[in-house]
């Protein structure tokens, strides 16, 4: 018997593994608890027994002891200023209130033990029974899709085409139901027959999201199913901070809803027909009188009709053939008089600067929110396509490392873009100034590098859309009050379909020095074009020097050339900004290495942004040996020396002579986003 027991145990173990759910999890896991400790590594630590620590403990204790909430959603804050803590607790829609609080209490214990002294953390219990997150930043009403974890059943479905279609149909239908929920519950669960089986599905959002945000979050999760979650599997899940979804065919994994919003009160009955008629006539008279008054008011105060923002699918650039499939949202339109009042009639005292396509003004909306308003020049013949392109694209993007579009205005000849106000101007304002770049120590510079990388990764992979920016540079990286980077200027961005890898254009636009060689010379652009630009940006941030020809000691040449020669000869430390005397030597050298990988001549040899983010976040991620960068040895520097714009058209190439502009300027001359003109 003692000889058979190990075999029996081995058999049972194999049987258990075969029938278990295999998990592909982008998170730390312990005791069926998945967690992240400050996913972006930029929130920092708090000190034990500090005010923040006390506020956190008080907040979490209050949250889990609140018996007045019976719908499974808790969002509270505690403290003031930098010691203020925000927390969100969310239980699955079928979890009873008492069980919900028990689950959140367990999450509280786990998070504070597994993420000691971290200001931001998030954790989920297995089967998404509950989620708990806290942070020193305001996370309320904020749609966030990362960090996330995915899991799937290890068994494949049969009749794959029908099965996958049924899964998609079920989850899409549930998403619409959940998104339409109120501020207490955004949850839906149901089943659908598929062949001889039933597919069970569940979706949920944090109820503080708008309907469109909930729908967007769930849509992005559903779109991950055939990519990296659970393609062709009989079960799977995608769990994010703002939403989660799951489907299974092997069993019904959810119960009855724990909270059902009460139905609206029934209509009053028992009135006589005469009373009803009298009321109806009275209401009709009031409505008619009111309508007449409104008509008179409009006639007396009418202005020139406001030009509607046209959303027909059209060419957004000279060489676009297909539609972009994006609709503008009417709520984004802001009346001209509101913007005019916010900027004190575009007064000079509110003027932040003057760019090639108009002025930028600081303003304050009636609700107190500070804004930056880009007012395009009324006499400009250019910019319409870029204006529409940017509004259509940026309106769909939500990420902490992207500048946020709040609205736009098109009235008469006025074209205005309204953005969140970013107080610390752009990266080039600091990094290329002998005095100001001393304010950027290595920790801040690394935070800018890592945050920019995450923003680009979102554009390339994690957003609903797939976008190539085409004009990444220091002047288009804005810095908020905490020096967090925000990518700006989407006037040149291009939309890719899911499986598209590259595209060719008849008009090359962008900024010389940051442009990948295949794009500058042949009009071919892809995600790797943005990777190239990011590599240039890394080298500039590390060195404090512009990419253009520089004098570095006894060496003269392009920053990429000097960085490559220095790295190859084992003296890469020579290109590092001398003010970075307290930074991590290994981290700085690793960033130089990553930058050189990104600027390689062969686009296929450059890493993806997903790999770049992994390289930046983990020193255990091995780095390949880079080859010589593009344009190495200034072999092609003469090509660009006297050229400002290249247009590749019908097999011919033509150029306009330079007008002594800096090689840092965008050659399309139509960058419209940057709230701080270069």
UniProtKB/TrEMBL annotation:
It is a single-pass membrane protein. One of its GO terms (cellular component) is plasma membrane. GO terms for biological process: response to oxidative stress. It comes from Vigna radiata var. radiata (Mung bean). The chain crosses the membrane at residues 274-298. One of its GO terms (molecular function) is protein serine/threonine kinase activity. Residues 654-664 have a biased composition (Basic and acidic residues). It holds the Pfam family PK_Tyr_Ser-Thr. Residues 652-678 are annotated as: Disordered. It is found in: Membrane. This is Receptor-like protein kinase At4g00960 isoform X1. ATP binds at residue 374. Residues 346-622 form the Protein kinase domain. It catalyses: L-seryl-[protein] + ATP = O-phospho-L-seryl-[protein] + ADP + H(+); L-threonyl-[protein] + ATP = O-phospho-L-threonyl-[protein] + ADP + H(+). It comes from the Eukaryota. Residues 34-139, 145-252 form the Gnk2-homologous domain.
């Amino acid at each position: 018997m003692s000889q058979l027991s190990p075999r029996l145990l081995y058999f049972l173990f194999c049987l258990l593994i075969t029938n278990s759910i295999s998990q592909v999890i982008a998170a730390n896991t312990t005791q069926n608890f998945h967690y992240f400790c400050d996913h972006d590594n930029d929130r920092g630590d708090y000190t034990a027994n500090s005010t923040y620590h006390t506020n956190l403990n008080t907040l979490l204790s209050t949250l889990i002891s609140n018996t007045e909430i019976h719908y499974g959603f808790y969002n509270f804050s505690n403290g003031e200023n930098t010691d203020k803590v925000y927390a969100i607790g969310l239980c699955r829609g079928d979890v009873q209130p008492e069980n919900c609080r028990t689950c959140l209490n367990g999450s509280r214990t786990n998070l504070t033990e597994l993420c000691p002294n971290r200001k931001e953390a998030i954790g989920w219990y297995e089967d998404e029974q509950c989620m708990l997150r806290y942070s020193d930043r305001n996370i309320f009403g904020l749609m966030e899709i990362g960090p996330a974890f995915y899991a799937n059943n290890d068994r494949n479905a049969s009749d794959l085409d029908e099965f996958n279609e049924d899964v998609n149909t079920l989850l899409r239908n549930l998403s619409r139901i959940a998104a339409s929920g109120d501020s207490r519950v955004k949850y839906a669960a149901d089943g659908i027959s598929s062949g001889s089986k039933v597919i069970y599905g569940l979706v949920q959002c944090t109820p503080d999201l708008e309907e469109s945000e909930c729908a967007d979050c769930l849509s992005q999760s559903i779109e991950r199913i055939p990519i990296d979650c659970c393609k062709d599997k009989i079960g799977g899940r995608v769990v994010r901070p703002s939403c989660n979804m799951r489907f299974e065919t092997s069993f019904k994994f959810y119960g009855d809803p724990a909270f059902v919003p009460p139905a609206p009160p029934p209509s009053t009955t028992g009135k006589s027909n005469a009373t009803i008629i009298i009321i109806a006539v009275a209401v009709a008279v009031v409505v008619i009188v009111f309508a007449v008054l409104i008509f008179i008011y409009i006639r007396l105060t009418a202005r020139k009709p406001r030009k509607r923002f046209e959303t027909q699918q059209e060419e957004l650039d000279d060489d676009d053939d297909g539609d972009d499939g994006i609709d503008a949202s009417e709520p984004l339109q802001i009346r001209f008089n509101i913007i005019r009042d916010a900027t004190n009639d575009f007064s000079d005292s509110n003027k932040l600067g003057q760019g090639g396509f108009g002025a930028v003004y600081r303003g304050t909306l009636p609700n107190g929110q500070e804004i930056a308003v880009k007012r395009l020049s009324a006499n400009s013949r250019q910019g319409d396509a870029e204006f529409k392109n940017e509004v259509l694209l940026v309106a769909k993007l939500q990420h902490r490392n992207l500048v946020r579009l709040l609205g736009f205005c098109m009235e008469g000849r006025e074209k205005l873009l309204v953005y969140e106000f970013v107080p610390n101007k752009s990266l080039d304002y600091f990094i290329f100034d002998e005095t100001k770049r001393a304010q950027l120590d290595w920790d801040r510079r690394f935070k800018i590098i890592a945050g920019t990388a995450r923003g680009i990764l979102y554009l390339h992979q994690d957003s609903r859309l797939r976008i190539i920016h085409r004009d990444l540079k220091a002047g288009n990286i804005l810095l908020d009050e905490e020096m967090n980077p925000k990518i700006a200027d989407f006037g040149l961005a291009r939309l890719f379909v899911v499986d598209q890898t590259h595209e060719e254009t008849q008009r090359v636009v962008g900024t010389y020095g940051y442009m990948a060689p295949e794009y500058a010379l042949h009009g071919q652009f892809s995600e790797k074009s943005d990777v190239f630009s990011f590599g240039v940006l890394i080298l500039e941030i590390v060195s404090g020097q512009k990419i253009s020809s520089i004098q570095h000691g006894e060496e003269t040449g392009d920053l990429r050339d000097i960085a490559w020669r220095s790295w190859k000869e084992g003296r890469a430390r020579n290109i590092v900004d001398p003010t970075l005397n307290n930074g991590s030597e290994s981290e700085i050298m690793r960033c130089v290495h990553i930058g050189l990988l990104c600027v390689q001549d062969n686009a296929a040899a450059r890493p993806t942004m997903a790999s770049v983010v992994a390289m930046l976040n983990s020193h255990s991620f091995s780095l390949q040996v880079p080859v010589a960068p593009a344009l190495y040895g200034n072999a092609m520097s003469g090509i660009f020396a006297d050229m400002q714009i290249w247009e590749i058209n019908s097999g011919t190439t033509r150029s306009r002579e330079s007008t002594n502009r800096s090689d840092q300027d965008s050659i399309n001359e139509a960058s419209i986003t940057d709230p701080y003109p270069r």
